[in-house]
Amino acid sequence: MIYIKGEAAFSAGAVVFDTEGKQVLSILDEQNGRVSFPKGGIEMGESIEDGACREVEEETGVICKLWSPTPIAIEVRNQRSDGRSKVVHWFGATFAATGQQKLEDYEQLVPKWFNIEDIVDNLAYDDDKHLFNSCLSYFNTHIKQG
Q: For the Nudix hydrolase domain, which residue ranges apply (predicted)?
């Protein structure tokens, strides 16, 4: 159980591997040049799992299949300007199909596949590097063995 004092904003996203586990999906934010993983806010009445998949498709145009209904990680960020904590549920996932990218007017996101050997050096945030390593370990232990 997670206890968060006050109000919180809930988000979800996924680290998406290709079907062979050789590449991982990311987004390049053209406004600031940072590479990260797709994520976004959960909509009213939406499950965290559905929100993660929807955000991946909206930001990248990729339809993914989550490995498990249980998140790989839950990250609490205390940096919102409105004083609320932001709780991000991160899932591991595999590419399932090509969908349609549906960005908000202010978003300038470019989907980018990286070889798994190269992604860590390109990620902008240390938390994303740790998240990727956790997903890679889970993939190698539970998914690749299949």
A: 7-136
